[in-house]
Design a protein that fits this description.
The protein contains 13 helices and no strands. By secondary structure, it is mainly alpha-helical.
Length: 289
């Protein structure tokens, strides 16, 4: 049951990631920030690979597993780019709930693709509760939101879709692959995709005017992401997708708490009710796995 502990740790680090990232993209372009933080994640990931000594097993990875790890990396990169674009345009409390809706799609795909049908009725009820909770947490942002329109919501939805695909592809990709090594390989693909987009959009010029304080927060966000990923993919490799993913999404509790303390982003009663329903739905999946 150690995989449940690593899933919980994944949620803690993921919650910190969103807050640290928000602090690092006030002036810095979101695509550039994503590319920079991925460098930190990659370094962190490979350090862990050498710590556990799994670097010697690279040649033994089956072509099928490698293919799905690469596809998972592309899906992750797309999810990140959309997520941090949305985060730069909207409130943390509005963007994160939509991103977490990937849980719903992931659970349904896990049931279809991996046959995780134990306590199916409970899982479907919990998924419905999650959906209601997410809907209640999605609120219109006043003032600034009128100027930005709903663009942030589109990016947030795309982030959720790619995140769901990431979990399913990664589950197949890490079959027979040491989780730290799988994370490192995927991160390399994300890094490549992130920098291709930065240079394609001509945003690499922003490196000359980087704010040192924001660079620090971007780096800390990268470390938190790396820690979250290592825990998440360890849990994913040893546990049920339909349980690991909802636990990981509980990071929203930490995100909401810190967004209030750091950015003074308050929840309405409706949004708070939505958060409670998300927690209830997740706990149902955990205890009736």
């Amino acid at each position: 049951m150690f995989w449940i502990i690593t899933a919980i740790l994944s949620a803690v680090f993921a919650g910190l990631t969103s807050i640290l990232a928000k602090c690092g993209i006030k002036k810095t372009d979101s695509d550039l920030a994503t590319a920079l933080r991925t460098i930190v994640v990659l370094i962190f990931s490979w350090i862990m690979v050498f710590v556990v000594g799994s670097q010697g097993t690279i040649g033994a990875i089956a072509p099928r597993s490698l293919l799905f790890l690469v596809l998972s990396g592309f899906a992750t990169g797309a999810s990140w780019i959309c997520y941090f674009k949305a985060l730069s345009m909207g409130d943390v409390n509005k963007v994160v709930p939509i991103d977490k809706s990937s849980t719903i799609l992931t659970v349904l795909l896990a049931i279809i693709c991996f046959g995780e049908t134990t306590n199916l009725a409970v899982k479907l009820i919990a998924t419905a509760i999650l959906a209601i909770g997410i809907f209640l947490m999605i609120e219109k942002k006043k003032s600034a939101q009128k100027a930005e329109g709903r663009s942030w919501m589109i990016y947030a939805v795309l982030s959720a879709v790619f995140a769901a695909l990431t979990s399913i592809l990664a589950k197949v990709g890490i079959s027979g692959v040491e989780s730290n090594l799988g994370t490192a390989i995927r991160t390399g693909i994300v890094l490549l995709l992130a920098w291709v987009i930065v240079f394609a959009r001509g945003k690499h010029h922003g490196l000359k005017t980087l704010d040192k304080r924001e660079l620090l927060f971007i780096s800390l966000s990268g470390i938190a992401t790396g820690a979250s990923w290592l825990c998440y993919y360890h849990a994913l490799g040893h546990g049920l997708v339909s349980v690991v993913v909802p636990i990981d999404k509980l990071s929203i509790i930490i995100t909401v708490a810190f967004s209030y303390l750091v950015f003074k982003e308050k929840l309405s009663r409706k949004a708070f009710l939505g958060l409670c329903l998300m927690v209830v739905g997740t706990l149902l999946m955990v205890f009736f796995k």
